[in-house]
Amino acid sequence: MPLTDKFGRPITDLRISVTDRCNYKCVYCRTGNEGALYGDLPFADYLRMARVLVELGIQKVRITGGEPLLRKGVIDFVRQLAKLRTTGGEELDIALTTNGHLLAEMAQPLKDAGLRRVTVSMDAVDPDRFARITRVPEGYDNVLAGIRESRRVGLWPVKVNCVLMRGFNEDQIIPFGMFAREEGVVVRFIEFMPLEEDRVWSPNTVVTLDEILQRMGEYRPLVEIPHARSETARRYRFDDGVGEIGIIAPVSRPFCGQCSRIRITSDGKIRTCLFSIWDHDLHGQMRRGASDEELAEFIGGVIQKKEARHHIGEPDFVPASRTMVHIGG
Ligand code: SAM
Fold it and tell me: CA 51, 53, 54 angle in degrees (round to 5)?
Protein backbone atom coordinates (compact mmCIF):
# COMPACT_ATOMS: atom_id res chain seq x y z
CA MET A 1 0.00 0.00 0.00
CA PRO A 2 1.42 3.42 -0.93
CA LEU A 3 1.42 6.30 1.50
CA THR A 4 -1.95 8.01 1.55
CA ASP A 5 -2.62 11.59 2.59
CA LYS A 6 -5.37 12.68 4.96
CA PHE A 7 -7.81 13.04 2.04
CA GLY A 8 -7.22 9.43 0.98
CA ARG A 9 -5.07 10.27 -2.05
CA PRO A 10 -2.33 7.67 -2.65
CA ILE A 11 1.05 9.31 -3.27
CA THR A 12 2.74 7.40 -6.09
CA ASP A 13 4.33 10.08 -8.23
CA LEU A 14 7.59 11.88 -7.39
CA ARG A 15 9.20 14.78 -9.26
CA ILE A 16 12.80 15.62 -8.52
CA SER A 17 14.32 18.89 -9.65
CA VAL A 18 18.07 18.46 -10.08
CA THR A 19 18.81 22.15 -10.71
CA ASP A 20 16.92 25.41 -10.90
CA ARG A 21 19.29 26.74 -13.59
CA CYS A 22 17.85 26.97 -17.07
CA ASN A 23 19.37 27.82 -20.45
CA TYR A 24 16.04 29.24 -21.73
CA LYS A 25 14.30 32.37 -20.50
CA CYS A 26 10.72 31.65 -21.55
CA VAL A 27 8.80 34.88 -21.18
CA TYR A 28 5.87 33.32 -19.30
CA CYS A 29 8.18 31.56 -16.82
CA ARG A 30 11.18 33.74 -16.03
CA THR A 31 11.96 37.44 -15.88
CA GLY A 32 15.18 36.87 -17.79
CA ASN A 33 17.11 38.70 -15.05
CA GLU A 34 17.08 36.13 -12.25
CA GLY A 35 19.38 33.12 -12.49
CA ALA A 36 19.35 30.15 -10.15
CA LEU A 37 18.09 31.09 -6.70
CA TYR A 38 18.63 27.79 -4.89
CA GLY A 39 21.52 25.36 -4.70
CA ASP A 40 21.57 21.80 -5.90
CA LEU A 41 22.68 18.61 -4.20
CA PRO A 42 24.98 15.73 -5.08
CA PHE A 43 23.04 13.08 -7.03
CA ALA A 44 23.71 10.59 -4.23
CA ASP A 45 21.45 12.71 -1.98
CA TYR A 46 18.57 12.76 -4.47
CA LEU A 47 19.05 9.02 -4.92
CA ARG A 48 18.76 8.36 -1.21
CA MET A 49 15.61 10.48 -1.01
CA ALA A 50 14.17 8.62 -4.00
CA ARG A 51 15.03 5.24 -2.49
CA VAL A 52 13.29 6.06 0.79
CA LEU A 53 10.24 7.38 -1.10
CA VAL A 54 10.09 4.36 -3.40
CA GLU A 55 10.08 2.16 -0.31
CA LEU A 56 7.01 4.19 0.76
CA GLY A 57 5.14 3.44 -2.46
CA ILE A 58 6.36 5.80 -5.21
CA GLN A 59 6.01 4.19 -8.63
CA LYS A 60 6.91 7.01 -11.03
CA VAL A 61 9.85 9.36 -10.87
CA ARG A 62 10.13 12.37 -13.17
CA ILE A 63 13.42 14.25 -13.35
CA THR A 64 12.98 17.95 -13.96
CA GLY A 65 14.34 21.40 -13.19
CA GLY A 66 15.27 24.19 -14.16
CA GLU A 67 16.74 22.38 -17.11
CA PRO A 68 17.76 18.89 -15.95
CA LEU A 69 20.03 18.19 -18.94
CA LEU A 70 22.34 20.99 -17.78
CA ARG A 71 23.37 18.85 -14.80
CA LYS A 72 26.45 16.75 -15.49
CA GLY A 73 25.87 13.25 -14.18
CA VAL A 74 22.16 13.13 -14.96
CA ILE A 75 22.58 10.04 -17.16
CA ASP A 76 24.26 8.15 -14.36
CA PHE A 77 21.53 9.33 -11.99
CA VAL A 78 18.95 7.70 -14.30
CA ARG A 79 21.07 4.52 -14.29
CA GLN A 80 21.06 4.43 -10.47
CA LEU A 81 17.33 5.20 -10.23
CA ALA A 82 16.60 2.39 -12.68
CA LYS A 83 18.04 -0.10 -10.18
CA LEU A 84 15.31 0.72 -7.64
CA ARG A 85 12.22 -1.48 -7.48
CA THR A 86 8.72 -0.49 -6.40
CA THR A 87 7.19 -2.07 -3.30
CA GLY A 88 5.54 -4.51 -5.72
CA GLY A 89 8.96 -5.50 -7.11
CA GLU A 90 8.48 -3.73 -10.43
CA GLU A 91 10.74 -1.38 -12.35
CA LEU A 92 10.19 2.32 -11.73
CA ASP A 93 8.57 4.38 -14.44
CA ILE A 94 11.31 6.97 -15.01
CA ALA A 95 10.56 10.05 -17.11
CA LEU A 96 12.22 13.39 -17.76
CA THR A 97 10.92 16.87 -18.60
CA THR A 98 13.26 19.02 -20.68
CA ASN A 99 13.30 22.00 -22.99
CA GLY A 100 14.97 19.65 -25.47
CA HIS A 101 17.88 21.96 -26.33
CA LEU A 102 20.52 19.35 -25.45
CA LEU A 103 18.37 16.29 -26.02
CA ALA A 104 19.50 15.12 -29.46
CA GLU A 105 22.88 13.89 -28.24
CA MET A 106 21.59 12.66 -24.88
CA ALA A 107 18.47 10.71 -25.90
CA GLN A 108 20.25 7.44 -26.67
CA PRO A 109 22.43 7.40 -23.52
CA LEU A 110 19.40 8.32 -21.41
CA LYS A 111 17.41 5.48 -22.95
CA ASP A 112 20.31 3.08 -22.40
CA ALA A 113 20.51 4.18 -18.76
CA GLY A 114 16.85 3.25 -18.17
CA LEU A 115 14.81 6.36 -18.99
CA ARG A 116 11.42 5.32 -20.33
CA ARG A 117 9.76 8.50 -21.50
CA VAL A 118 10.49 12.10 -22.23
CA THR A 119 8.36 15.25 -22.24
CA VAL A 120 9.69 18.17 -24.26
CA SER A 121 8.41 21.69 -23.69
CA MET A 122 7.76 23.69 -26.83
CA ASP A 123 5.45 26.69 -27.07
CA ALA A 124 5.47 27.43 -30.80
CA VAL A 125 6.05 25.41 -33.94
CA ASP A 126 7.53 28.31 -35.81
CA PRO A 127 11.26 29.07 -35.32
CA ASP A 128 10.92 32.87 -35.04
CA ARG A 129 8.11 32.75 -32.51
CA PHE A 130 9.97 30.04 -30.63
CA ALA A 131 13.04 32.31 -30.36
CA ARG A 132 10.90 35.21 -29.10
CA ILE A 133 9.33 33.04 -26.40
CA THR A 134 12.53 31.34 -25.23
CA ARG A 135 14.74 34.40 -25.77
CA VAL A 136 17.40 32.09 -27.18
CA PRO A 137 18.30 32.33 -30.88
CA GLU A 138 18.12 29.23 -33.05
CA GLY A 139 16.88 26.81 -30.40
CA TYR A 140 14.04 25.47 -32.51
CA ASP A 141 16.15 23.19 -34.68
CA ASN A 142 17.88 21.69 -31.64
CA VAL A 143 14.56 20.94 -29.96
CA LEU A 144 13.08 19.41 -33.09
CA ALA A 145 16.19 17.25 -33.47
CA GLY A 146 15.82 16.20 -29.82
CA ILE A 147 12.19 15.22 -30.33
CA ARG A 148 12.99 13.19 -33.45
CA GLU A 149 15.96 11.46 -31.84
CA SER A 150 13.85 10.59 -28.77
CA ARG A 151 11.29 8.93 -31.02
CA ARG A 152 14.02 7.12 -32.92
CA VAL A 153 15.59 5.62 -29.78
CA GLY A 154 12.20 4.58 -28.36
CA LEU A 155 11.63 7.03 -25.51
CA TRP A 156 7.98 6.35 -26.00
CA PRO A 157 5.59 8.12 -26.07
CA VAL A 158 7.30 11.45 -26.76
CA LYS A 159 5.08 14.14 -25.29
CA VAL A 160 5.37 17.78 -26.28
CA ASN A 161 4.02 20.26 -23.70
CA CYS A 162 2.79 23.65 -24.85
CA VAL A 163 1.73 26.41 -22.45
CA LEU A 164 -0.72 28.77 -24.13
CA MET A 165 -0.98 32.43 -23.19
CA ARG A 166 -3.65 34.66 -24.58
CA GLY A 167 -2.46 37.15 -27.16
CA PHE A 168 0.83 35.39 -27.36
CA ASN A 169 0.68 31.94 -28.87
CA GLU A 170 -2.93 30.78 -28.96
CA ASP A 171 -2.71 30.95 -32.77
CA GLN A 172 -0.40 27.94 -32.45
CA ILE A 173 -3.22 25.55 -31.50
CA ILE A 174 -3.94 24.27 -35.00
CA PRO A 175 -0.26 24.22 -36.07
CA PHE A 176 0.41 22.04 -33.00
CA GLY A 177 -2.42 19.71 -34.07
CA MET A 178 -0.69 19.33 -37.42
CA PHE A 179 2.64 18.86 -35.67
CA ALA A 180 1.25 16.02 -33.53
CA ARG A 181 0.06 14.25 -36.66
CA GLU A 182 3.20 14.81 -38.71
CA GLU A 183 5.77 14.07 -36.01
CA GLY A 184 3.96 11.20 -34.27
CA VAL A 185 4.12 12.87 -30.84
CA VAL A 186 1.45 13.53 -28.21
CA VAL A 187 0.99 17.30 -27.96
CA ARG A 188 -0.36 18.46 -24.61
CA PHE A 189 -1.62 21.95 -24.02
CA ILE A 190 -1.24 23.21 -20.46
CA GLU A 191 -3.31 26.03 -19.05
CA PHE A 192 -1.11 28.86 -17.85
CA MET A 193 -0.89 28.94 -14.04
CA PRO A 194 0.14 31.80 -11.72
CA LEU A 195 3.65 30.44 -11.15
CA GLU A 196 5.76 32.83 -13.18
CA GLU A 197 8.54 35.09 -11.90
CA ASP A 198 7.03 38.18 -13.51
CA ARG A 199 3.55 37.84 -11.98
CA VAL A 200 1.75 38.61 -15.25
CA TRP A 201 -0.96 35.98 -14.75
CA SER A 202 -4.60 37.01 -14.67
CA PRO A 203 -7.63 34.84 -15.40
CA ASN A 204 -7.96 36.20 -18.91
CA THR A 205 -4.38 35.23 -19.86
CA VAL A 206 -5.49 31.58 -19.60
CA VAL A 207 -6.50 29.84 -22.82
CA THR A 208 -8.95 27.29 -21.45
CA LEU A 209 -9.69 23.68 -22.31
CA ASP A 210 -13.00 24.65 -23.93
CA GLU A 211 -11.35 27.20 -26.18
CA ILE A 212 -8.60 24.79 -27.21
CA LEU A 213 -11.14 22.11 -28.09
CA GLN A 214 -13.22 24.55 -30.06
CA ARG A 215 -10.27 25.90 -32.04
CA MET A 216 -8.82 22.45 -32.73
CA GLY A 217 -12.27 21.21 -33.77
CA GLU A 218 -12.24 23.83 -36.54
CA TYR A 219 -9.24 21.99 -37.96
CA ARG A 220 -10.44 18.39 -37.49
CA PRO A 221 -12.98 16.68 -35.24
CA LEU A 222 -11.60 15.21 -32.03
CA VAL A 223 -12.73 12.10 -30.19
CA GLU A 224 -12.13 11.87 -26.44
CA ILE A 225 -10.06 8.91 -25.25
CA PRO A 226 -11.09 7.52 -21.85
CA HIS A 227 -8.39 8.36 -19.30
CA ALA A 228 -7.30 6.83 -16.02
CA ARG A 229 -8.59 8.58 -12.88
CA SER A 230 -5.10 9.65 -11.82
CA GLU A 231 -4.21 11.05 -15.27
CA THR A 232 -3.99 14.82 -15.29
CA ALA A 233 -4.50 15.23 -19.04
CA ARG A 234 -7.76 14.81 -20.89
CA ARG A 235 -6.86 12.94 -24.05
CA TYR A 236 -8.23 13.20 -27.57
CA ARG A 237 -7.42 11.67 -30.94
CA PHE A 238 -8.35 13.06 -34.32
CA ASP A 239 -11.33 11.42 -36.01
CA ASP A 240 -9.15 9.59 -38.55
CA GLY A 241 -7.05 8.02 -35.78
CA VAL A 242 -3.88 9.95 -36.69
CA GLY A 243 -2.42 12.08 -33.92
CA GLU A 244 -3.19 12.51 -30.23
CA ILE A 245 -3.50 15.66 -28.19
CA GLY A 246 -3.99 16.16 -24.47
CA ILE A 247 -5.16 19.11 -22.43
CA ILE A 248 -4.02 19.70 -18.87
CA ALA A 249 -6.50 22.13 -17.37
CA PRO A 250 -5.54 22.88 -13.75
CA VAL A 251 -7.29 26.25 -13.92
CA SER A 252 -10.62 25.54 -15.64
CA ARG A 253 -10.90 21.86 -14.56
CA PRO A 254 -8.80 21.38 -11.41
CA PHE A 255 -7.81 17.78 -10.69
CA CYS A 256 -6.52 18.27 -7.12
CA GLY A 257 -8.82 15.49 -5.87
CA GLN A 258 -6.79 12.98 -7.91
CA CYS A 259 -3.36 14.47 -7.23
CA SER A 260 -0.82 11.74 -6.50
CA ARG A 261 2.30 13.92 -6.60
CA ILE A 262 4.95 15.25 -4.37
CA ARG A 263 8.03 17.16 -5.42
CA ILE A 264 11.60 17.51 -4.25
CA THR A 265 13.27 20.80 -5.11
CA SER A 266 16.89 21.05 -6.25
CA ASP A 267 17.92 22.03 -2.71
CA GLY A 268 16.18 19.03 -1.17
CA LYS A 269 12.89 20.45 0.09
CA ILE A 270 9.63 18.52 -0.21
CA ARG A 271 6.71 20.38 -1.74
CA THR A 272 3.29 18.82 -1.44
CA CYS A 273 1.61 21.12 -4.00
CA LEU A 274 2.84 23.43 -6.77
CA PHE A 275 1.01 26.17 -4.88
CA SER A 276 2.39 25.40 -1.42
CA ILE A 277 3.34 28.46 0.57
CA TRP A 278 5.98 26.51 2.48
CA ASP A 279 8.25 23.57 1.89
CA HIS A 280 9.68 20.86 4.13
CA ASP A 281 13.41 20.47 4.61
CA LEU A 282 14.15 16.81 3.85
CA HIS A 283 17.79 17.53 3.13
CA GLY A 284 18.04 19.30 6.50
CA GLN A 285 17.01 16.01 8.13
CA MET A 286 19.74 14.21 6.20
CA ARG A 287 22.35 16.78 7.21
CA ARG A 288 21.38 16.23 10.84
CA GLY A 289 22.16 12.52 10.40
CA ALA A 290 18.64 11.08 10.20
CA SER A 291 18.44 7.35 9.49
CA ASP A 292 16.32 6.04 6.60
CA GLU A 293 13.59 5.17 9.10
CA GLU A 294 13.63 8.72 10.47
CA LEU A 295 13.46 10.14 6.94
CA ALA A 296 10.48 7.89 6.18
CA GLU A 297 8.76 9.09 9.35
CA PHE A 298 9.43 12.73 8.41
CA ILE A 299 8.03 12.15 4.90
CA GLY A 300 4.95 10.42 6.30
CA GLY A 301 4.23 13.48 8.47
CA VAL A 302 4.78 15.89 5.57
CA ILE A 303 2.38 13.99 3.33
CA GLN A 304 -0.38 14.45 5.89
CA LYS A 305 0.04 18.20 5.32
CA LYS A 306 -0.65 17.94 1.59
CA GLU A 307 -3.05 20.73 0.61
CA ALA A 308 -6.63 19.82 -0.33
CA ARG A 309 -6.46 21.94 -3.48
CA HIS A 310 -5.02 25.04 -5.07
CA HIS A 311 -7.00 28.28 -4.90
CA ILE A 312 -6.17 29.72 -8.33
CA GLY A 313 -8.51 32.54 -9.29
CA GLU A 314 -10.15 32.70 -5.85
CA PRO A 315 -10.10 35.86 -3.68
CA ASP A 316 -8.08 34.06 -0.97
CA PHE A 317 -5.34 32.89 -3.42
CA VAL A 318 -1.86 33.37 -1.99
CA PRO A 319 0.99 33.02 -4.52
CA ALA A 320 3.22 29.99 -4.09
CA SER A 321 6.45 30.52 -2.18
CA ARG A 322 8.47 29.57 -5.30
CA THR A 323 7.89 30.00 -9.00
CA MET A 324 7.77 27.08 -11.44
CA VAL A 325 11.42 27.12 -12.53
CA HIS A 326 12.52 26.97 -8.87
CA ILE A 327 10.08 24.19 -7.97
CA GLY A 328 10.46 21.79 -10.86
CA GLY A 329 7.59 21.50 -13.30
N1 SAM B 1 13.30 23.03 -18.38
C2 SAM B 1 12.36 21.95 -18.45
C3 SAM B 1 11.31 22.22 -19.50
O4 SAM B 1 11.41 23.23 -20.19
O5 SAM B 1 10.42 21.40 -19.64
C6 SAM B 1 11.72 21.58 -17.13
C7 SAM B 1 11.25 22.70 -16.23
S8 SAM B 1 9.91 23.68 -16.88
C9 SAM B 1 9.67 24.80 -15.52
C10 SAM B 1 8.57 22.54 -16.79
C11 SAM B 1 7.30 22.91 -17.50
O12 SAM B 1 6.63 23.92 -16.79
C13 SAM B 1 7.46 23.41 -18.92
O14 SAM B 1 6.63 22.66 -19.78
C15 SAM B 1 6.95 24.82 -18.84
O16 SAM B 1 6.36 25.24 -20.04
C17 SAM B 1 5.95 24.71 -17.72
N18 SAM B 1 5.61 25.99 -17.10
C19 SAM B 1 6.44 26.97 -16.69
N20 SAM B 1 5.74 27.98 -16.14
C21 SAM B 1 4.44 27.64 -16.21
C22 SAM B 1 3.23 28.26 -15.81
N23 SAM B 1 3.23 29.45 -15.22
N24 SAM B 1 2.06 27.62 -16.02
C25 SAM B 1 2.06 26.40 -16.61
N26 SAM B 1 3.16 25.74 -17.01
C27 SAM B 1 4.34 26.36 -16.81
Answer: 65
pLDDT tens-digit profile, the chain (329 residues): 789 999 999 999 999 999 999 999 999 999 888 889 999 999 999 999 999 999 999 999 999 999 999 999 999 999 999 999 999 999 999 999 999 999 999 999 999 999 999 999 999 999 999 999 999 998 999 999 999 999 999 999 999 999 999 989 999 999 999 999 999 999 999 999 999 988 889 999 999 999 999 999 999 999 999 987 778 899 999 999 999 999 999 999 999 999 999 999 999 999 999 999 999 999 999 999 999 999 999 999 999 999 999 999 898 899 999 999 999 98
Residues at CB less than 6 angstroms from ligand 1:
22, 28-29, 64-65, 67, 97-99, 121, 161, 163, 190, 192-193, 195-196, 324-325, 329
> 203-224: string of b/e by CB count within 10 Å (b at 16+)?
eebbbbbebbbebbeeeeebee
Atom from ligand 1 closest to the CA of residue 163 = 16
CA of 176 to the centre of ligand 1 (A): 17
Atom of ligand 1 nearest to the CA of 99: 4
Write phi, then psi, for 92 (nearest 5 degrees): -75, 150
